[in-house]
Write a structure and sequence with these properties.
Strand content: under 5%
Helix content: over 70%
Distance between the termini: 51 Å
Number of strands: 0
Low-confidence stretches: 4-13, 23-68
Order of helices and strands: HHHHHHHH
Mean pLDDT: 77
Structural class: mainly alpha
Length: about 270
């Protein structure tokens, strides 16, 4: 029974351990592999409801001095939630795939819409696809395809949600590793994340222009607010390339160069 419990707990903790190990392999310090594997071992060996609930323990020595910190409880909970959400998203996608196939069968008369199954689908299943159906009609699409478009939206939305949660998990792990290494690595990590946020905003800005979204839309306004300070001055210097505005691309490479200069200078000063 104890071995079975340990096996289940290891299954729950595996996403956390994997995220921790990936983080310090990317961190680039000599003592990173042992340090991260120690954190991963802590995440796997300790129960999620015990992690962070007790006082910190001295677990293992870190090469070069220092000790392994305990894994915060919220990080373990996030890993468990992410693992459970992956299964939930897969289950919801399978259910919507079955409902979409059934609805399309009724809409195309492969299943009689006047039989018991057809009446059930029209009363209980089709309302799930009505929002997408209205959008398709306004866009000039075929309403019969609304179930498949809804299924695509569910799958893409689920994948995006998983990606965002995985990104947050990796971000928190990176900050944990950097903070444990001292104030200097933490400062470098925060600067790197700041530049990454600016580069992401430039990417969102370019994508929004492809879909003709308004700069004042609530979905993309933040990207323009973060990058106007560098894009607008560059527009007065860099001419457009035919019909294309290459200013965001130039700004992206300028931020990349500036990030390397700033981090290189700070890393040299902190040594």
């Amino acid at each position: 029974k104890e071995r079975l419990t340990d096996r289940k707990r290891n299954t729950w903790m595996r996403p956390v351990a994997g995220g921790l190990c990936s983080a310090y392999r990317d961190h680039g310090q000599d003592n990173t592999p042992q340090f991260v594997c120690g954190l991963a071992a802590v995440a796997v060996m300790r129960r999620p409801w015990d992690v962070g609930a007790t006082r910190p323990r001295r677990l293992a020595a870190v090469p070069g001095g220092g000790e392994l910190p305990r894994v915060p409880a919220f990080l373990v909970v996030l890993g468990v939630a992410l693992a459970a959400l992956q299964k939930l998203v897969f289950g919801v996608a399978v259910v919507f795939a079955g409902l979409a196939a059934l609805s399309v069968s009724v809409r195309t008369r492969r299943v009689s819409p006047f039989g018991g199954v057809g009446r059930f689908v029209r009363a209980r299943v089709d309302p799930l696809f009505e929002p997408m159906e209205r959008r398709l009609v306004r866009a000039g699409g075929v309403p019969t395809n609304a179930p498949w478009w809804t299924l695509a939206g569910v799958v893409v939305g689920g994948l995006l949600l998983l990606y965002l949660l995985g990104f947050v998990q990796g971000l928190l792990v990176q900050l944990l590793v950097a903070a444990s290494a001292g104030s200097g690595p933490l400062l470098l990590e925060l600067i790197s994340l700041t530049f990454a946020a600016l580069q992401l905003a430039l990417f969102v800005r370019v994508i929004s222009s492809w879909f003709s979204l308004s700069p004042y839309s609530k979905w993309v306004r933040w990207a323009f607010v973060l990058t106007d300070w560098i894009v607008n001055p560059l527009r007065q210097i860099v001419p457009p390339l035919g019909m294309f505005d290459v200013t965001p691309i130039v700004a992206y490479f300028a931020l990349t160069l500036l990030e390397r200069l700033v981090i290189g200078a700070l890393a040299g000063a902190l040594r």
